[in-house]
Amino acid sequence: LSPSLSLLCCSSLSSPTSHLLFLPLFDLPNCTVVCHPQEKHATVLSVSKKTKTKPRPIALNTCELMRTASGGLGIGPQDAMGIAERLYIQGYISYPRTETTSYPANADLVSVLRLLAPGPDWHAAVEALLKGELVEPKGGKDVGDHPPITPLRLAREGELTGNDWRLYDMVVRHFIATLSPDAQLLHTTASLRIGSEQFSCSGQQMLSPGFTRVMHWLAPSDEARIPDLVQGERLEVSRLALAERHTSAPGYLTESELISLMEKHGIGTDASIPVHINNICVRNYVEIASGRRLIPTNLGVVLVHGYYKVST
Q: Where does residue 194 rank: exposed (0-12), middle (13-18), buried (19+ CB within 10 A)?
C-alpha cells in the first residue's frame, strides 16, 4: 500500500501558535482536491480532554535491568550483568540476580531514601518523597529468591565512571520511582472542519510529573502538546501539504525486545538469558546494529532453516 496523508497547518486567529492536523486518505486524487480548498479557515467542531494515569514502575529485577540497560543505555545484557555484579561486590547495589519484583514487608525503604538524599542528581525528588509525597510501592511478585535490586550505598559521579555510573544511576532512579506517585497526563483530542472535510489532532501534556521527575525519559515531550482549542473557534489555514507514506515490514528485534520474549516464553533464566544472547553474537548467528538491533547473519538463517528441516 502507498497511502497518502494530507497535512494541515493552522494558526488560531487569536494566537500565532501553529499546530498540525491530519486527515488520512488513501486516494491520491482525493488528497489533491482536499489540498486546494476554497475555504481558508478551519472550525473547531469538538474538543475532548481526559486525564490519564501513567503508572510508576514496580521494583527492579534482573530482566528489567537488562532491558533498560540495553534499550535505554545501549549496554548489552552480558556487559550490564558484569557491571551490576561489580557494583554488588563494591557494595553499591544489592544482589543483581533475582526474578522478584516485590519489596520484602520488613524492608526499610525510607532509610534507603535518606541514604540517597545527598546525591545532587536526585536530591530534589528524594526530599519531596521524605516530606510527604512517598507512596506505597506497587505490588510485584515474590518468587522466593532474592529481593529486588536496590541501591545500598551512595555514590557520586566521579566516584564511579563510565557505564558503571550510568547503570548505578539507573538503579537509583528506578528505586526512587517505585516510591513516587504515578504521573498524571492530560490527553486532548480535537476535531476540526475545513470546507466539507474533517480533520483531527491529538496531544498530551503533563499535569503532575510524579515518578517521571526522576525517570525523565518517560515524560512526554513538549512536541506532544497541542495548543488550547475551544469549540466553535475559527483557525486560519496557513499551509496545506501532501506527504506520502508507505507500509513497512516489522523491524529487527532489539536486545530489549528479545529479553522480553525470552522471559515471556520461559527461555532461559535471569542468569542464563544474557549468556544465550551473547552466545548467538560471538558465534556469528546475529550482528548487533545501531539501536542494539539483532540482525541475523547468513549463517544464522541457514542454521534456523536446518533446524526446521530436521524437525519436519
A: buried
